[in-house]
Design goal:
The protein has 330 residues and is of the alpha+beta class. It folds into 4 domains: 94 residues, Beta-grasp domain (Ubiquitin-like (UB roll), Roll), CATH 3.10.20; 79 residues, Ubiquitin-like (UB roll) (Roll); 52 residues, no CATH class; 73 residues, Orthogonal Bundle (Lysozyme), CATH 1.10.530.10. It is built from 7 helices and 15 strands. Strands 5, 6, 7, 8, 11 and 12 form a 6-stranded mixed sheet that branches. A 4-stranded mixed sheet has the order 2-1-4-3. It is rod-shaped, with a radius of gyration of 43 Å.
């Protein structure tokens, strides 16, 4: 447990960690410069292995102690950092000096919040150093669809973004220790239908007709629900079994001429009407004219909508003229 660190102290510590890579990269070059003042006496100018936050380099130094050697290389440490051997240890050839800068990490569980000083460089090391729980991969499998629970550690940067694996731990990192529970439920769902509106010239302008009434559908869903520290987190639909498909309602709005008036005049609005003179159906087509607008067979045998469709094609070609008398009703 750590208490009482000031904001400026944390900032300094964080900056030391951030500068580690640059300091380590410059050590090799500095060692060459230091070697230019070396003498043949190895005990006077020893060569040592310096490891800073896991990054090792061989350097030659004329410093008398570990402390002066670190100061010589502008490597800052304070009482919270780990230095081995101690700062006052005399330098000797072949020795290893290890520096681990520690940063403050907040550990949050469902019942407590604490601060810890850690030497870990990345998320993987952090979990090992603090013995934080890791996810059991078997618990993540959804194929069995069996209820399960596990404890995991979610690590985030100060801005709240999650970090993983080898990503760097910085001052202000938070480790969230969470209890995760997954359950599966079956949900009956109504599939609401919608209304589709369409326009058609096969109905007179201002006419509205329901072409298809439509109905709702039904489905059974298998849903995976996740809870974190007892609170609902999210849900995922794993399967959807449609027991009855929805059917949308279709409503037609007419934009065409007065077909009913024409049909009433020509045939008494009888789609099966037959004139002995050789005219058939609602609009009294001859067989030849019927075939000329794409019809087949006898016009009187076609549906009301089919007859109106062929009449619309004829109307587009010649307006009301194909019906010299009744065309006045269009």
């Amino acid at each position: 447990m750590f208490h009482g660190r000031t904001a400026s102290h944390r900032k300094t510590n964080s900056h030391r960690r951030a500068a580690t890579a640059a300091a380590t990269a410059s050590l090799a070059a500095f060692a060459v410069v230091s070697g230019s003042v070396a003498t043949a006496d190895a005990s006077v100018v020893p060569t040592v292995t310096l490891t800073i936050d896991g990054h090792a380099v061989s350097v030659t130094t004329n410093a008398s102690t570990v402390s002066s050697m670190l100061a010589q290389r502008s490597i800052a440490v304070d009482s919270n950092d780990l230095v081995s051997p101690s700062l006052g240890t005399p330098m000797r050839d072949g020795m290893t000096v290890q520096v681990d800068h520690r940063v403050e990490v907040t550990v949050k569980t469902s019942s407590s919040v604490s601060s810890q000083l850690v030497a870990a460089d990345n998320v993987y090391q952090l979990k090992n150093e603090l013995a934080l729980p890791a996810v059991d991969p078997a618990a993540l499998k959804q194929s069995t669809r069996q209820p399960s629970s596990w404890t995991r550690t979610l690590v985030t940067r100060p801005n709240g973004k999650e970090i993983l694996g080898q990503q760097r731990v910085v001052e202000g990192t938070t480790a969230h220790v969470q209890r995760v529970r997954v359950g599966f439920v079956t949900v009956r769902k109504t599939l609401r239908h919608s209304v589709k509106k369409r326009t058609t010239p096969l109905l007179a302008a201002g006419t509205v007709r329901v072409q298809r009434s439509g109905h709702d559908g039904r489905a059974v869903l298998t849903v995976r629900r996740k809870f974190v520290n007892g609170a609902f987190a999210n849900r995922q639909v794993l399967s959807r079994d449609v027991r009855r498909a929805k059917q949308n309602r279709v409503v037609l709005s007419g934009t065409g001429p007065n077909w009913r008036g024409l049909a009433q005049c020509e045939s008494g609005n009888n789609p099966r009407a037959v004139n002995p003179a050789g005219f058939y159906g609602l609009y009294q087509f001859s067989v030849g004219t019927w075939a000329g607008v794409g019809g087949s067979g006898n016009p009187a045998d076609a549906s009301r909508m089919e007859q109106t469709k062929r009449a619309w094609i004829l109307y587009q070609r010649g307006g009301a003229s194909p019906w010299p008398v009744c065309g006045a009703y269009l």
